[in-house]
Design brief:
Blueprint lengths: L16 H25 L20 H84 L11 H12 L4 E2 L8 E2 L1 H10 L9 H4 L4 E3 L9 E4 L7 E7 L2 E7 L3 E6 L7 E4 L2
Parallel strand pairs: 1-2
Antiparallel strand pairs: 3-8, 4-5, 4-8, 5-6, 6-7
Helix pairs in contact: 3-4
Length: about 270
């Protein structure tokens, strides 16, 4: 049987290595003092009785303490790493959410700006259409008020020669390609009328619709060239003779006629004189 078998094996709470070392040192010193005192007090004439001192066994589980400390440190380190990672992820999440919110705000502002721009463009388009409709309605109303009995405003100078010639051709036949003197097409009549004023015009209506300068339909003067269709691509021309009327070679069914502007409102006008 071991000499320490009588000592109960009860595990005590762990102590730090430093405290255990101090206590072990104190115990060793006490035991050394007792041994020296016993030796000094023994008489040489008396037999010496050997005394066995049992050394207390110090239950120093240093390896377990060190292992526990290392394990605790590792656990603390791992916990700190996890905490740092979580904080980093939270910061990234906040940064990403802020960026997404900023982008969403910018997209919303851009969409709102585009919507406002489109609404403004639509408003302007509606206003322009309304203005054009109003101008055309005013022109047609003015032309309608001047019936065929209205006396045309007198033309002056070269314009008078153009107007007089055009009116003198009323009733003659319309023939495609005709340039007079007994039949005309629309551009042939205009070319012949301007020839009376000493002005040479191109032969076809497309070219005639680009000569001179543009003039508003609300500011026409006798002798102005009226055209139908886009400028440069006009499909018909005639001569404004004043009083809200024009003279033109319309078609083979009507021949050369004098009509109110409301009969067939032109697209635009050119002033050559």
């Amino acid at each position: 049987m071991s000499h320490t078998a009588h000592i109960p094996s009860h595990r005590k709470p762990r102590r730090s290595a430093s405290k255990l070392a101090v206590r072990a040192g104190v115990a060793g010193g006490v035991l050394s003092t007792l041994a020296m005192a016993g030796t000094a007090s023994a008489s040489p004439s008396e037999p010496v009785t050997e005394t066995t001192l049992e050394m207390p066994v110090l239950n120093l589980d240093l390896a377990a303490d060190v292992s526990s400390a290392v394990t605790t440190a590792a656990e603390n380190t791992a916990a700190a790493a996890v905490t740092g990672e979580l904080r980093s992820q939270e910061e990234q999440a906040r940064t990403g959410a802020a960026a997404e919110a900023k982008k969403a705000k910018e997209d919303a502002e851009k969409a709102d700006a585009e919507k406002k721009a489109k609404e403004e463009a639509d408003r302007k388009a509606v206003a322009e259409r309304a203005t054009r409709s109003s101008a055309r309605g005013s022109l047609q109303s003015t032309a309608a008020s001047n019936d065929e009995d209205t006396v045309a405003a007198p033309a002056a100078g070269s314009a008078a020669a153009i107007v007089n010639f055009a009116r003198a051709q009323v009733g003659k036949a319309y023939i495609s390609g005709g340039t007079g003197p007994y039949s005309f097409d629309c551009s042939g009549l205009v070319q012949a009328a301007y020839r009376q004023a000493g002005v040479s015009l191109p032969r076809v209506s497309q070219d005639q619709s680009t000569r001179g300068s543009a003039v508003s339909l609300s500011a026409l003067q006798p002798g102005d060239i009226l055209y139908w269709g886009p400028s440069g691509s006009a499909y018909h021309v005639a001569i404004y003779v004043g009083g809200g009327k024009f003279v033109g070679a319309q078609n083979s069914g009507t021949g050369i006629v004098e009509r109110s502007l409301s009969y067939d409102p032109p697209t635009g006008a050119r002033r050559v004189l």
